[in-house]
Amino acid sequence: MRRFPLRAAWWLPALLLGCAQPAPQREGHVTLQRQAAPGQALPGPAQAAPGPLRDDRGCLLPAPVVPKAPPPPHHLSGQLGLWVAEIDPVTLRPVRAVATNPDSVFPLASTYKQAVLWALLREVDAGRVQPGERFTVTRQNQSLGSYPFDGSDVRALSERMIHNSDNTATDILHRRAGLGAVQDVADRLGLCRTRLILPTKAWWVAQSGLSATFNGSGRWTGARGEEQRRIAALIDQDAQKYRADYVQRKLNDYFDHRRDDALDAQVYNLSTPYEFGTLVAQEFLRPDLSEASRRWQREVMGTGFGKSALTITQQGRVRYVGAKGGNGWQLLTYSGYVETTDGRHLVYVFMQRGADQSYTMPNTRRAFAWINAALNVVLGAPARTTALGSPAR
Length: 393
Fold this sequence. Notes:
Layout: E1 79-87, E2 94-100, E3 106-107, H1 113-125, E4 134-135, E5 152-153, H2 154-164, H3 167-177, H4 179-187, H5 200-207, H6 212-216, H7 225-239, H8 244-257, H9 261-267, E6 270-271, H10 273-285, H11 291-301, H12 311-314, E7 318-328, E8 331-340, E9 345-353, H13 364-380
Keywords: Hydrolase
Domain Beta-lactamase class A catalytic: 98-281
Protein name: Serine hydrolase
């Protein structure tokens, strides 16, 4: 495919703004108010073993009351969210955890791409996607930033999606798995405040004002279920009408002259630290994949950034880490699943929005200093006889 020159844009892997106000806190603990779930109930099929607790509509309950995370060792500006927990591998509930604003909504940035991998592998196991399928980069499917060679197969694209955070590879696989299949990753788990459905080019086209569907619909933000899937498909059809370099120019103008937090919150994929931590735990501990697909998942997720930044890695205490991060305009996200050498299962989710810095990658060291401080607390906490479960009321 001919390569179009694009103006360098460091915020390309990023997504969303839109954070709920944190609940009032008491000394040493995060006390959470019940958050309103989407209006449409999600299915809650019976599971072979207990899972995270849900309400009567099938929505995951708010995070349990846990000790407040230690303060960041180094200054981090903007709104911050953190969920760090040890997970019981049988119940998938946290047995030790610390948190800051775990039920506030944040942009996911490229962290969402691991959900595309999980949905894709479910389609592979179902026989609807063949691992040997190969793809060509076209005017329609090219997103922003670098992109893969023509003829790349599913495995190669999945590696670029996670290791390189390649937006075009992500969009090709997202569409191949199906927009609804990717959203279904959250819906099956009752993550009522998590949106995963839009490919990268689709949200950028909506954000820059190029989607007639998005501009003409007042129903998108509250859409769920089939209505959400129908509107998302139309927005994505709009996105495929435009060349990546043209979208890039329109986005440059948007960020330079008319950026709107409220608009950003409508277009990006998003979640809360606790909901996304629940997704990460399920993704690795109960993915419902074949052995071959689970091995593929673990190998590819093992190439995401995170392992080298963990203090416990330097201490020789880590057996495996699967991780993914993302960044964007004034936002930064990191998530990971960790298996320690003594058999413990950990998850961490860090989210930042509204940072003082437009380019947030230099905040990575500060973010992981906080993640490491929280992991140190969780790993040093005394064992509990029962898993955490009841949210604050």
